[in-house]
Amino acid sequence: MPVDAIDRPRSLVTGGAGFLGSHLCDRLLAQGHEVICVDNYYTGNKRNLHQVLDNPNFEAIRHDVTFPIYLETDRIFNLACPASPPKYQNDPIQTTKTSVHGAINMLGLAKRLGIPILQASTSEVYGDPAVHPQTEDYWGHVNPIGPRSCYDEGKRCAETLFFDYHRQLSLEIKVARIFNTYGPRMDANDGRVVSNFVVQALQKRPLTIFGDGSQTRSFCFVDDLVDGLIRLMNSPPEVTGPINLGNPSEFTMLELAELVIELTGTDSSIEFRELPVDDPMRRRPDITRAKEDLEWEPKVALREGLSQTINYFDDLLSDD
Ligand code: NAD
Ligand code: UDP
Question: Among all ligands shown, which has an atom nearest to the Cα of 120?
């Protein structure tokens, strides 16, 4: 439905130049919102925003969320944080700062303005889970001092801050625990498994499986995920989360590699490499809460989403 300029809601999207954030900006603009994107371009890219840069309802600000920012908005989607293990481990101190100081700064902004704020949390708060599938009341199994801890514990601390701002200051919060999401605009060099396999297959290089490939993940297509984030933001104030957002169809990394090989028609081989430290063995969301509270469930099957992702990378690599 078209929105009159005077009534146009304004959303701040931190991390808006990243993979998920740029799709979220697109969707909010399409719904007639004004969008301010705040990003320091650590893992994001202006290319992800080229389709909205001329939109008068869009504004991009280069800013690091570990420093305070003063602006006016009606709601905040806090997505700023590298999500790929090699990228967040590259500067682990900055990763923790981004999650924790970033949360404090954005919560402070939400408090001053009296507006709702959504946190992009993660299935990594469950660590290498002892409960399967993961429900929101599971407290997790996380190493506090390992190479993934900067991300896992940073996100856990951010959740703590969100719930304390809610309890102590009555701030309206929304915490989404996002499971592995993939799709167009992932960075080709980002290091996550879907982009790695697709790029390797298209370049006819071996697909690199870490470990024996029996570890599992459940992959959600980006369009479904963005729909879930917007539903969560639009939900009644008593819906705070945490709420799992992800696709419950579970695959081993070997199955994923075989599907990518089939869909790309590549003659790439599979190469086994060492499993990274603390790599979770199983991951699948229980999405009962999202179904009940948001009437949300993913619609795009892995085969279909992968085909769209392969087309995106095919175009990208042939442009280079
Ligand atoms: P991404 O790396 O593509 O995007 C993150 C964005 O945040 C980038 O544009 C980056 O430049 C920006 N950023 C990083 N540090 C910043 C800082 N200090 N100040 C300002 N901007 C900063 O990752 P993504 O996949 O789009 O993930 C977005 C959010 O969703 C992250 O918070 C991530 O933890 C969460 N998440 C993603 C997934 C997934 O599978 N994609 C899963 C769980 C959680
Ligand atoms: N992985 C892999 N090959 C790669 C990249 C990742 O086998 O080239 C594995 C990784 O060890 C993990 C899974 O794929 O078990 C998902 O990794 P990703 O980095 O995408 O996300 P994670 O869920 O670990 O944060």
Answer: 1
